[in-house]
Amino acid sequence: MPYDGIGRDVRNGLNFAERGFGVRGAVGVSDRGNTAASQLRPGDIDWHHLFGDLGVRWLHTGGIFAALSESTADVVLEAVTAAKQYGTVVSYDLNYRPSLWRAVGGQVKAQEVNRAIAPHIDVMIGNEEDFTASLGFAVEGVDQDLSELPVQKFAAMINRVADEYPNFTVMATTLRTVRSATINDWGALAWSKATGVVAATHRTGLEILDRVGGGDSFASGLIYGLLDGQPLATAVEYGAAHGALAMTTPGDTTMASKAEVLKLAAGGGARVDR
Prior knowledge:
Layout: E1 14-18, E2 27-31, H1 47-53, E3 58-62, H2 63-67, H3 70-85, E4 89-93, H4 98-101, H5 106-117, E5 123-126, H6 130-135, H7 151-164, E6 170-178, E7 183-192, E8 196-199, E9 203-207, H8 214-227, H9 232-246, H10 258-265
Parallel strand pairs: 3-4, 4-5, 5-6
Antiparallel strand pairs: 1-2, 6-7, 7-8, 7-9
Helix pairs in contact: 8-9, 9-10
């Protein structure tokens, strides 16, 4: 988008995050009005060139982009529809953010948009509340505060989602129990038609420096494993390990190396490397 020099009409988005500590939870504030991304419209991007001519293998998007404006939801539908024509794998992170949906219809609108997008998705990713908030699938026996996360009940929910959306080839969800802002239990489940539900190593009492970026790092670790041809059980371990490492560093951009992720995914510890 043409820049006016000061950001009156178009700018890049910002995301402010307070880390939290102990009994004080982390707080995220999105500052994304008038951003270039929010102003994208169907027709702005030549998807057929990307997927057909250039042969892009994988498209990843999600609920945050879809929530930025009415037009961005339409851009997602345009993109995922074009991707399917060329066999490009499409992954989607539900990433429900109440603050982004509040002014455009709230959770009802979020479910309407995400349910329209879901039939075009191959790999669906979410956290411990996304499948409920964004697609309307409740996890039985889990309280609103998510104080305990029974794995078998999440697995049952995933199986119900698979029945309604047979186009999903893989589903994955992170499992986070917040003991405090500083101590979380952290794990993940993944599902495919071939494997059923598989679980990553569950890390109880994980120490958190900055929790933002854990979900995105889980998604990227999972996707890396799948693109690399790894079994789903290995890919979900990559995702869970990468997410855990991202939460030990400030900010939501990973600072972990591939070697660090593979070491932790294989059961490595935190002894000093010299």
